[in-house]
Specification:
Structural class: alpha/beta
Radius of gyration: 18 Å
Helix content: 25-40%
Largest sheet: 8 strands, mixed
Strand order of the largest sheet: 6-14-13-8-9-10-11-7
Shape: globular
Length: 307
């Protein structure tokens, strides 16, 4: 397997950049909340110069959002880059990210949803573990905080057993954690920033996508051949993702059926309903770390941050 490096653990005293690389903050109180979240871990928050800007659905101009990220990546005093929110916009600036600087000095990259674009690019260009976890502006429940700390501070198993998870295709697998937001991954197909899913346990989540679009995106990944080397598929929460009009009773299709078709075609274990996605209580997933999946026990375990 390809060697991945882990960034340093974020211990007390770490300097953490708070940036908005995609969509804008929606409420004035969200930035103070983000700063307070950082301080509760003993970190010093450093707010990006353009973190509160807005240009329609973007958090300011591309060059300004890019500059905020690159300044954080290049600054030797900054230990991590914690995204304020997702939305849309990171794909627009991927080509300008200073991957060489990040490769020289790996730093924790934290966020989810649209931040999947940056996770994917960093995996592809730098082979550094990044964290698919809550944005800085979000209230952290005890559950989310515990997983977050286990991932970015202690670098131990940040996942576990999910009693109510759904076994879609039985089996067990060991591999590297890969993936993120399904919409972003399908959009990255054919670009230089699509992550290598070979030997990976593919983690997926999405929001506000009708079932036929989920079906379409899964089929796109399958037809592109990028799923051929996957060891397993694990879907988190698909928030506000309605099934076909009329529901199963009226001849519609169900989410697990659509997901199962892909898993069965690939012949890989598949689990759905883990706490990942646009939900209050979520795991922080160290993308690039090694993990084990057992659908029988509904368990996903992070086994190593080294490979």
């Amino acid at each position: 397997m390809t060697h991945f490096r882990a960034p340093n653990r974020l211990e007390a005293g770490a300097h953490v950049a708070l940036v908005a690389p995609a969509g804008p903050l929606q409420k004035p109180e969200q930035l103070p909340l983000a700063e307070e979240n950082a301080r509760t871990f003993g970190w010093e928050p450093i707010v990006g110069a353009h973190a509160t800007e807005r240009l329609g659905y973007l958090a300011g101009r591309d060059r300004d959002r890019l500059n905020d990220i690159n300044r954080a990546i290049r600054d030797p005093k900054i230990d991590a880059v914690w995204m304020l929110r997702g939305g849309y916009g990171l794909m627009r600036i991927l080509a300008g990210i200073d991957y060489d600087a990040l490769s020289r000095t790996p730093k924790a990259i934290i966020g989810f949803s649209d931040v999947t674009a940056l996770h994917a690019a960093v995996q592809r260009k730098c082979r550094i573990i990044t964290y698919h976890g809550p944005h800085a502006r979000e209230p952290l429940t005890d559950f989310s905080r515990d997983s977050f700390q286990r991932a970015v501070i202690r670098q131990t198993d940040s996942c576990g057993v999910v009693d109510n998870a759904r076994e879609i295709n039985a089996g067990a697998a060991e591999g590297r954690l890969v993936g993120g937001n399904l919409s972003l991954l399908s959009s990255l197909c054919g670009t230089p920033y699509m992550p290598d899913l070979t030997d990976g346990i593919l983690i997926l989540e999405d929001v506000s996508e009708p079932l036929y679009r989920i079906d379409r995106m899964l089929q796109q990944l399958k037809l592109a051949g990028v799923l051929n080397g996957c060891k397993a598929i694990v879907f988190g929460d698909c928030t506000n993702c309605p099934e076909d009009a009329g529901g199963a009773e009226a001849g519609g299709r169900q989410f697990d059926e659509v997901l199962g078709e892909v898993a069965h075609a690939l012949g890989v274990p598949c689990l759905a309903g883990i706490p990942v996605g646009h939900i209050a209580e979520q795991w922080t997933i160290p993308l690039g770390a090694m993990a084990e999946l057992d659908t029988a026990t509904r368990t996903l375990s992070v086994t190593s941050y080294k490979s």
